[in-house]
Amino acid sequence: MKKHLLILAAALLLAGAAQGATITIINVDGPGEGFNDTTPATPVGGNPGTTIGDQRLNLFQQAADIWGGLLVSTVEIRVESSFDPLDCDASGAVLGAAGANVINRDFIGAEFPGTWYHGALADKRSGVNFDPGSFEIRAFFNVDIDNNNACLSGTNWYYGFDGNAGGDIALLPVLLHEMAHGLGFSTFTNEATGSEFLGFPDIYERFILDTTTGLHWNEMTNGQRAASAVNDGNLVWDGPGVTGASALFLEGPPIMTVNSPGTLPATIALGSASFGALLGDGAVTGNLVLADDGVGTGSDACTALINGAQISGNIALIDRGTCAFISKAQAAEAAGAIAVVIVDNVVAASPPFLGGTDPGLTIPAVSVTLADGNLLKAELTGGVNVTLELDPSELAGADSQGRVKLFAPNPIQGGSSISHFDVSANPSLLMEPAITPLLNDQVDLTLQHFDDIGWFDPRISATPDVPTALAALGANYPNPFNPSTRIDFRVAQAGPVNLVVHDARGRLVRTLVVESMAAGDYTVEWNGNDDTGRRVGSGVYFYRLEMDGFAETRKMVMLK
Asked: What is the pLDDT of residues 340-359, one digit of tens each?
């Protein structure tokens, strides 16, 4: 008989123990430093710590709890953590790093023989801690970013949980990003030489596809991998989880549609920026006007514009060089521009990504190649009217089959190439090589990436008579739904059950079931409210059933 569970009271949501992964932060800082810094601090953004050290530790644990709530493992994951002096000057800094401290292959539970797995993933799949004397992940971050005007010109870490960093650097998304590397988002292959670690491929490498050759990295020679590592735009992650979900996260790339004159190309490719308004919030149409600050190369907009009357209400066309991208955008916005187009100053096949941070900028900023910029400038005398918008016909950061591109610039960027999604993704993804201000506690396609490499496969037991299919998740009905939907699931063997709902960015929305259940068929109803009782918005959601070593996820859509 099917049992029907109608979730009505918060008390039921708190019953039992949640299934997930325990990620423990191990403080290895010395007295008075890093996590042990006793400098007084005011609680900020949900972080209750009253010293800098406490706030740092709280934020590390917040990141650990986010990943622990999304992953499933019966083996504790230990993260050796510290704050240390790292490279930093007024214009750049090493924020920090994390990675697998141990790796394993040919263990019971490995999906692929002769393949390296990150230690935490290997432990999860086997149910055994292979290296009890070692930490699974090593993480260290730059202590010099705090209270040091010589480092990033006075920019500090922001220790709040809410992402309201202002002009500072939110540490939470940086931590989520770096912990993900240690959990499995990285290859152990040498990108420059193409050589595999001790001659064996790794689990990440098996999903790197070169669309030019049609080969995965584990199918290539060292020389082929080295050439593939710089095959910019043609290297993709082809795991089914990421590919299947790419359309749920990615939007079209920014493009310039030329309204007049007809002598220009109908559309021109644009590069995106880490600052300013999003084109996804609405297209911008206007006349292009070349900026002029009256100093040197006046079109570089490195000081206040002297042609504000012409710029106001129009789109500023600005040359790259001399000053930061955000300085150019600030000058244009101050003159009344409705958007900024920055022209590259070097020959390149694609327009550059515009990095920088300024939460105060409210107009969109995009870029064009030097060649396209010259075409636009040649027609300015007669007037150029354009629309800046997103192209609905494709996904930015993915190929025509929805496979998300990997970061493969030429030349190789050490520490960034291959082990990241490409910077062409729109909106920005957590696992791009640079964290943008739009990111905070969301994990987007990183969760599907972990599904691809085996984090959610049933644990393979060393005992043949122990079943691995502990449960099964059915379809919700109705789907799409409003105002509520019912979810069917089966428990094949008595034990603790966890049924949760996540939004499209991977954030926990609602815990529906957390209790020990007898074998049987069940139905649970979700009324469209989150764990605080607030009604969620329309959109795509994922519901996940978890038992000891088992996890299955399905998609549902709420309409209003």
From this structure: 999 999 998 889 988 877 77
